[in-house]
Amino acid sequence: MHEVRNWLTIVEFVELGLGIALVPKSMQSLKKDHVQFVEIENNDILSETHCIWNKRSSSILLDHFLQLLPFGTV
């Protein structure tokens, strides 16, 4: 079993014949000759996403960005 977290490495592992993977659609732009990308239609796949920042940082831009996130004010 291989556990890889970098999308490019995951695609490389697939190209080397080390398995299959579910990847974001954006990986399709890699144009790998030996990798077949197939879109999964009619799916309800959700992906956990995180937003991180340095708590010591302070800027108006960061404050505005955080206001756009679903959890609102932090």
UniProtKB/TrEMBL annotation:
<feature type="domain" description="LysR substrate-binding">
    <location>
        <begin position="2"/>
        <end position="69"/>
    </location>
</feature>
<dbReference type="InterPro" id="IPR005119">
    <property type="entry name" value="LysR_subst-bd"/>
</dbReference>
<dbReference type="Pfam" id="PF03466">
    <property type="entry name" value="LysR_substrate"/>
</dbReference>
<protein>
    <submittedName>
        <fullName>LysR substrate-binding domain-containing protein</fullName>
    </submittedName>
</protein>
